[in-house]
Amino acid sequence: MERADRLLLVSAIAYVLAVLYLSAILRSRSARLRTWPVALALAAGLGAHTAWLVRAAIRFGHVPIISTQEVFALLAWAILVYYLLLRRTRPWADIFGVFVLPIVVLFVLVALVSTGFTLLPQELENILRMPALPLHIGFMMLAYAGFLIAFLAALMYLLQERELKRKRFGFIYRYFPSLSTCETIGYRSLLLGFLMLTLGIGMGIILLRRSDPVFWRGDPIIVLALITWIFYLIVVHYRLAAGWRGRRAALLLIIGFLATAATFVSARLFGHIL
Amino acid sequence: MTIVLVGLNHRTAPIEVRECLAFTEAELPEALRQLVDGTTIAEGLILSTCNRVEILAVTPGAERAALERIRAFLRDQRPIPPSAYEAALYVRVDREAVRHLFRVTAGLDSLVLGEPQIFGQVKEAYARAIAAGTVGKTLHLLLPRAFSIAKRVRTETAIGEEAVSVGSVAVELARKIFDDLRERTVLLVGAGEMAELTVRHLLASRVRHVLICNRTRERAEQLAARFSAEVLSLEELPTSLARADILICSAGGTEYIVRREHVATAMLARRNRPLFLIDISVPRTVEPNVGQLANVFLYDIDDLEQIARTHLEHRRDEAVRAEAIVDQAVETFMKSLRSLEIGPVIAAFRRRLEEIAYGELERHRRYLGALTPEQERALRHLLESIISKFAHPAIARLHRAARDDARRPEELSALELWSDILDAQERSSLRE
Predict the structure, then answer these.
(1) Test mutation, A180, A184, A238, chain B, max B CBs within 10 A
(2) For this structure, is B50 an active site residue?
(3) Are A93 and A117 within 8 A, CB to CB?
(4) Among the four residues A32, B7, B230, B313, which has the most C-beta atoms within 10 Å?
(5) Nearest residue to A198 via CA among A259, A139, A257, A249
(6) Are residues A243 and B158, on separate chains, in Cβ contact within 8 Å?
(7) Which of A119, A150, A167 is the endpoint of a domain?
(8) Are residues B18 and B39 in the same domain?
(9) pTM of the full predicted structure?
(10) Partners of B45 in the beta sheet?
C-alpha cells in the first residue's frame, strides 16, 4: 500500500467501528448507548475519505475517476454521503446503516487493494480537463448510490414482506424497519437516483459532443445507459400514475439496480468513462 | 430488623377471594396506619392490585409476632373469615421477602410474564405508604432498589420486548407494516369485546381515525361514542374498505363478510397501499384467500395467538436471565441492609466508649492543673486513639459479620454484651 492510501485505511477503520457500534446499539435494545460515537466515527471516516479523494485529484491533476481504485473510493464516498443525508432526516436510518455501511466498507477495501493509475492516454487527458466531466461523474455516482440504496431498501422490503405473509418471524421481524419505512427509503432513493441519472446522462451527451464529432455510433455503453434510464422512467411513472408499490415496486427496483450495475461493470470492462 | 411479606396472588387464590381481600385506594391510608403500630411493625406497605394483595412489613423484633399482627390485621380489616383465605396466603421472610418483592416489581411473578403495569402499581403503593407515613429507613432502602432492579431487567433482557396478547400482537404487526399509526384509519367490523380491546391497543398507539360497522346500529353507536368514531352501515362496508388501513373483523355469522372481490376492488382504489386485515371472529368472516392478494396482510385469531405464544416462550427464556439478575441483587441488598443495621449499634458502642473516656477526663481534670491549648489537644487525641484502637477489632468483626450473615447473630450479641459490660462499669463507677 502506498503512503497516500493510509487515509483510505483510516476511513475504512472508522467505518468499521461505526457499523460495529451501530449493531451494538441494536443488539443491546436499550437507550443507554448513545448514538454520538457513530456520528463521530462517521465524521472521522468521511473526513479521511474526502481528504484522500482531494489528494488523488491534486496528485494526478484530474477528477479521481479513472482507475478502479478511484472509482470504488468515489462510489463508496457517494453512498456514504447519500446515507448521511437520509440519516439526518429521520432516526430510523440507524437500522438501515447496518446494511448500508458494510457496502461502503467493502468498496473502500476494494479501493485499497486495487492499484492506482499513473499514466493516461493523451486523448483521455483532454477529455479529463473539460469542466463538464466532474459534473457528469458526480451525477452518475450519486445516481448509482441512490439506486444501490433503493436496491437495499427493496431487498429488505421483500424479505420482510415474505415473513409477514408466511407469518413466521425471526431475525428480520425483530430488527428490520417497517415495510412503510423500507418503501419510503426506496422511493426517495429512486427519485433522487433517477434525477441524478438524467443529469448525468445529459452531461455525458454534452461531453461526447465535444470530444467526438460523430454523435451517434451505437456505442453499447450508451445504449445500455439509455435503456437503464428508460427503465427507471417507467418505474417512476407507474409508481406515480398507477400506484405500483409494495412487492412489485420492490422487484422493479432490484431489476433496475442489477441493470445499472451491469452498465457500470461493462463500462469499466470496455474502458469507457461513464 | 426483619422484613416480612404476607400475601396471596392469582396463583394461590381465585378472584372471589382476591377481591374480598383487596384494599381500595380510599381505604389504604387508614389501613396502613392500622397495620403499623411502631412496636411490632415499624414500617409497612400494602400492594393491592387485581392479581395480588401483599403486605410488606418491617419488624424490629421477632418475625412471629409480626406475622401474628398481620394476620390479626387482615382479620379485623376484611369482611371475610380467615378460613377463606388462610390456605392461599404465603409468607416470606427476610431474604425471601426481598426476592419476592424484586420478582414482583420486575414482572417475573405476573400472570403475563414480564408485563410492565405491576411496576407502576408497586410505585403507587410505595407513594401511598410514604403519604401515610408508614415508610422508614428499611423500606426507603428496599423499594428504590426494587425499582432499579426492575429497570435493569427491562433493559438487559428482552423480557418485555415482544407482544404477548392478541391486542398488542396486532399493534406490533401494524407497526411492522405501517411504522407510524397516527395517520392510519381503523375499520371495525362487528363490535365484540375482543375487537374493542384491540382498538384500545391501537388507540394507545395514537391511531385517530376509527370507523365502526355493525349489524345493530345501536351497539355501533355506543362504541363510536367512546372512541369518537364514525358509524357505517353494513351495506357501506365494501365501498368503505378502501378508506381503511387496518380492518378488524369480529362479526358473528357463518358467511364471509369481507370477500376477495371486495378487497381486490379496494386495493385498486387504494392504489396498492398496504391493507392489514385482522380476523378475530370464529368462524372466520374474512375470506381466507384474501391474504394472497398483493400488499394485503391477513391474520386470523389463530395466527395472532400463535405469535403471542411464541413470544411468551421467548419471555420465558429471558426470564431465566432476569432471575439471575434478581438473585445477584438480593445478595447485594441483604449486605447493604446488614450494614444499615449495624450502623446504629456501632455508633452506640463508640458513643459509650467516648462517654466513659471523657467522663474520666473531667473527673481527673482537677489534678491536672491548667492546660495549654496544645496539651488539651494532645490529651483529646490520646483518648481518641485509645478508643479507636480498642474498638477497632470489634467493629471490624461486625462489618465482617454484616457481609456474611451466617455469623451475624453471634456477633451482634457479642457486641450487645460489650455494651452491657460498659454500661455496668458506668453504673458501678457512679456508685463509687
Answers:
(1) A180
(2) yes
(3) no
(4) B7
(5) A139
(6) no
(7) A119
(8) yes
(9) 0.71
(10) B56
